[in-house]
Design brief:
alpha+beta, 166 residues, single chain, 5-stranded mixed sheet, 5 strands
């Protein structure tokens, strides 16, 4: 009986350890110094900040879209100033090229409610950024565009980019 109880306790401990390991995010790939230096150089340009350890690509400047009114306009994604957005989009594509084995999650966020209009607008803004990255030679299979309207997202107009390893 004591042996059986010890075996059960040992199995329970092993199961718990396996579950804990399974629930932990997988460690991100460690990048060599050359790639880390290139990421730092991109950050110095002032458009994006890249953290290769977490996969965060923080936009230091906004990709601004023209506002939309649910009652009078269609939920189309249109840049407020294409010239200002260009260097930001260029740098996001440079990040993608720096880590070609990673995927980019592009999130479009809006203010507003949780209606079809705001969901479509958020989706369209994310898709717009994804298309711009494709024009800059980021393969479309590496990009996932997702819209997050209103309180389902950040409840502000924003574009968020994340790196994801597969």
């Amino acid at each position: 009986e004591a042996d059986e109880a010890a075996r059960r306790a040992e199995q329970q401990a092993a199961d718990a350890a396996a579950a804990a390991e399974r629930d932990q995010p997988s460690p991100r790939k460690q990048y060599n110094q050359e790639i880390q230096n290139k990421a730092k150089a991109l950050t110095k340009r002032g458009n994006v900040e890249v953290n290769l350890e977490t996969g965060e690509v923080k936009l230091l400047k906004e990709i601004a879209f023209k506002g939309r009114n649910e009652r009078t306009q269609k939920p189309t994604a249109e840049l407020a100033d294409a010239a200002k957005a260009k260097p930001i989009l260029d740098d996001i594509s440079e990040v993608a090229k720096l880590v070609p084995e990673e995927y980019l999650i592009v999130e479009g966020h809006t203010r507003g409610g949780d209606t079809k209009f705001w969901q479509t607008l958020a989706d369209n803004r994310a898709a717009f950024v994804a298309k711009e990255l494709e024009k800059r030679r980021v393969h479309p299979k590496r990009i996932q565009a997702v819209g997050w309207p209103g309180k389902r997202g950040l409840n502000k107009v924003a574009v968020v980019v994340k790196l994801e390893q597969h």
